[in-house]
Design a protein that fits this description.
The chain has about 110 residues and is mainly beta. It is built from no helices and 10 strands. The protein has a 6-stranded mixed sheet, with no helix packed on it. Strand 4 (about 35-40) and strand 5 form a beta hairpin. The mean pLDDT is about 95.
Length: about 110
Amino acid sequence: VQLVESGGGLVQPGGSLLLSCTVSGFPFSSYPMSWYRKAPGKERELVATITSGGGTTDTADSVKGRFTISRDNRLQTLYLQMNSLKPEDTGEYYCNKRWSTVSWGQGTRVTVSS
């Protein structure tokens, strides 16, 4: 099993980033998937979830209306479009199954700062 997150970086408040997560080692299209983040000094939290077929999504209240989760099952890739970024969005972002998580990837770091 391998989860490889990418797309993070340093961005100014109000900016945008597109995160990607490429998955291998399990049948990606069979599972609901999520993005999680870990802010400095805080526990890892759930940010967004998408059903296996991509028809239904859900986002945390803190990012609702700003973040959009999507997936491409043919490419076994999960995405997180992040707009109107705020300093409190800073953290390490990870993808994984929504339930029965597998080994975590290395994450991708997002820093929102002026």
